[in-house]
Write a structure and sequence with these properties.
Blueprint lengths: L4 E2 L6 E4 H22 L14 E9 L11 E2 H6 L6 E10 L55 E3 L6 E3 L15 E3 L1 H6 L11 H14 L21 E3 L11 H9 L12 H12 L4 H9 L4 H27 L3 E3 H21 L10
Antiparallel strand pairs: 1-2, 2-10, 3-4, 3-5, 6-7, 8-9
Helix pairs in contact: 1-6
Length: 362
């Protein structure tokens, strides 16, 4: 819903204070999402030298992939090498090595790490790299769809994204806090159906696994499950599901055979990636950037900048409260007037304020 309206008299764009605050909140939420996704990224260094990275933000260049090749590139290469191309964000993928500049993209040399092997043989690609998602094999956002409001969810095994309406099962009330394994992956690895939170076997795992972990001879938590007639469908996993997995010798061997062991490691969880990204991105917080910038200023200039920031915050708060208590509408003229008054106030303060020279040592 648009937060901009026009008045009937002058047709001047207006916005209410509540709508402005809602916009600010939405922008802050989007910033948090980007920090969680890109906080681990170095936009000036290709990740190729790190090998097959456990988890990283990836992109697919649709301009370069138009020749039939399927490739993935890191954030730095998307920024430096494919800046003027059509680039799709793929969120994060596990165990992937940047393809930029290799034999698949030989017509697009990598500017950051030019000497790469011809191919990355261990990379795994799905239809996401072609710009297609879900069992419906449609792009996202889908320009032909009536709406794109159906939030997509990523399978933790194949890492494809699915529309909620195409999962084949009703969504649990708390589905946003749950991981999913799509129907195709449950069909491929049938033992995973035992861990569906709607399945009785998971209750056994919840109770017995805490005891089994303390034992060197762990019994199989799934050995008592005899229900093999349940229909294969998408399953949902609650927080901490990796800790509830059976860790008996037989099941661990099965995980290795199917190359699922890395996925079942706590370090693979997207929450762990986001935690590390947010911690790293703290260096980009506005307050810290200001503090780092002030370190290079003299004592007098530092006080002047801090005073200016404080005055701006106070004036803006007073301005918004005044508008909220009156008609609650903001116009372009109101905003221009606010900055005009702020500049006038600043000039008056400078006339009466004593500013010692930069060489002052007090």
């Amino acid at each position: 819903m648009s937060s901009i309206r026009t008045t009937t008299d002058e047709q001047e764009p207006t916005v209410t204070c509540s709508e402005l605050l809602e916009q600010i909140q939405d922008e802050e939420e989007e910033l948090d999402r980007e920090r969680a996704l890109y906080g681990n990224c170095d936009v000036d260094t290709c990740t190729y030298s790190q090998g097959y990275v456990r988890r990283q933000a990836l992109f697919a260049c649709m301009t370069c992939n138009s020749n039939g090749q399927v490739t993935g590139i890191c954030a730095a290469c998307a920024y430096h090498c494919h800046a003027n191309h059509e680039v799709n964000e793929l969120y994060t993928k596990r165990c992937f090595r940047c393809d930029c500049g290799n034999s698949k993209l030989i017509h697009q040399p990598c500017k950051l790490y030019p000497n790469k092997d011809p191919e990355n043989s261990l990379n795994k690609y799905n239809d996401n790299f072609r710009g297609l998602y879900c069992s419906c094999k449609r792009p996202y956002p889908d320009k032909e769809a009536a709406t794109n409001d159906d939030e997509m969810r990523q399978c933790i095994i194949c890492e494809d994204w699915f529309h909620g309406q195409h999962l084949g099962v009703p969504l649990p009330m708390e589905d946003n806090q749950m991981d999913i394994i799509c129907q195709a992956c449950v069909s491929k690895y049938s033992f995973l159906a035992n861990y569906d939170d709607s399945h009785s076997a998971i209750q056994t795992a919840l109770i017995d696994n805490s005891v089994a972990v303390a034992s060197n001879n762990q019994p199989c938590l799934l050995s008592n499950n005899t229900d093999n007639n349940s229909e294969v469908h998408t399953i949902f996993l609650r927080d901490g599901w990796r800790k509830r997995l059976c860790r008996c010798a037989q099941c661990c061997k099965l995980y290795d055979e199917f190359n699922l062991t890395p996925i079942f490691d706590d370090e693979d969880a997207i929450e762990e990636y986001q935690k590390q990204a947010l911690a790293k991105s703290e260096n980009l917080d506005a307050d810290k950037i200001i503090a780092d910038s002030l370190e290079n200023l003299g004592y007098v200039r530092k006080l002047e900048v801090l005073s200016g920031i404080h005055e701006f915050k106070k004036s803006l708060g007073d301005f918004l409260r005044e508008k909220a208590n009156s008609d609650g509408l903001l116009t372009a003229e109101d905003v221009a007037k606010f900055f005009e008054n702020l500049n006038e106030k600043r000039k008056e303060q400078q006339k009466t304020m004593f500013m010692p020279p930069d060489t002052c040592k007090f």
